[in-house]
Amino acid sequence: MSVQPYSVPDRAAARVEVFRLAYAIQTGDADALEGVAALTARARQEGWPEVERVGLFARAVHSWYHRDPETAAALEALLDRAVADGDHVLSALALAMRGDRANIGASPALVAAGEADLARAVVMLEKPGGGALERITAHTACGIGLYGRSLFELAEDQWAAALAAAESIAPGTVDFLVSPVLFNRAEMQVSWACMLYQLDDAQGLAERRRIGSAAIAAAAVLEMPDVWRDELRALDLLLAAISGDDVGATARARLTPVTASAAGRRWLGYLHLAAAVADGRANRSGASVAARLATAALDPASQPQAYDLALFCAAERETRGGAGAGLRYGQRQLAEYWSNRLAHLEAVRARIGAERLSSAYALVSRHASTDDLTGIGNRRSLDGYLDDLVRRGATGMALIVLDVDDFKRVNDRYGHPAGDEVLVCVARVLARSIRATDLAVRIGGDEFALVLADADVDTAYARAGALLRELGRLRFEAIDPGLRLGLSAGVAAGPPGAFDAVRAQADAALYTAKGGGGGLVEGSRVARPIRD
Asked: Would you tell me how many other CB atoms lie within 10 Å of the CB of residue 426?
């Protein structure tokens, strides 16, 4: 893929391009990460936070694809930024990716933690809002994590939700996101069908073929790597064989022209297995050889259901009459596994239900202490925070109060919705600038405050200066490309139990800054309290 990161005309195109680059990473494009870095840098310069967030996602994908030990840190960076920016869809995406990662060679405790992440992600995605591209990607990640745990029914819900989100986008615009959804959905139907075949569940097989064939047909007209397309063709044949179609000759014909250099391709095992199932059903002599070849070609780690079906077919041919002890033992183990899978499915459904209740309770509690417009704390949260500081014996804190200069002019010129957008953008910057031990609140109107635990006035002054510089770089193209913010800030420090006195000092310093007596920071001013 040829990447021209600075050729995108606007922030919307940049966001789509970063998503496309994340897809390119997964297809082995060595230059894609460079493009992500360039676009992320531009987004930071232009003030496009949603593009920066998608850039963090693309970096996490790169770490994951290359099995980088920094994958966990990349996912945490994405989660932290998404939470700070109030992006619940990308927060869900980060949780889903973390939950999927916890299923690979992890301890039971980590596996359980991963399922908790997936449950949270599923519930978060039930909340409306967020971009369609983000939703498609997040539902896809949830589906992959659930499929990896053989929770087919729950994963199917996520594939369906991802495709529903794609319906709001013009056809052909984001094939690079839709084709992986259809591929994964089709692959899962085949994996599911491999188990149902051994359980002799004809009704279940019919449903898997209906959904799987539809996904394969829809994917056939979309953009995707050739190797994916070859694998889908092989999956289609295997699904047909499992469903009772005699496709043995077709499967062997597709194997004939394959060269030795292609021996490592995943789809070869599916073709051998399709031949084994079809030949075994027709009682042809080649069934045993096809089953052995399928067993050799399939990977038990990444293709477990197909691999087990290949063993089943081989065992059937070895016993011929179907009464061998090994085959009966395998069937009993499969029946027990299926029963345990269904119990696991119900347990995860219960976890999701509990997460819904917990989320609803947390939402009510959060509304009581959260500013409705900006999503950061309100006066109630400030009171609770100060009480906690006093309870734990904190002896000091610093306070920064700041507001937007001449905010009334923004409302008067552009309207109150534009003014609200400005306040939301300011709040996002404040929320992601604080430590876990600090608090950002909207006091009212265009006035905000940061409380810094165990900090002095000099620390607050330096932090305020950095914040004013960052806020001054915000861009508001949707309102007016020329709109820039001027802000003023005042700082003070003292014991948490004397907050009113500290607030009075900070307010006095704010007025000094607004009057022009504070330190100039790129068009904005910040002042310390006047000392006696």
From this structure: 25
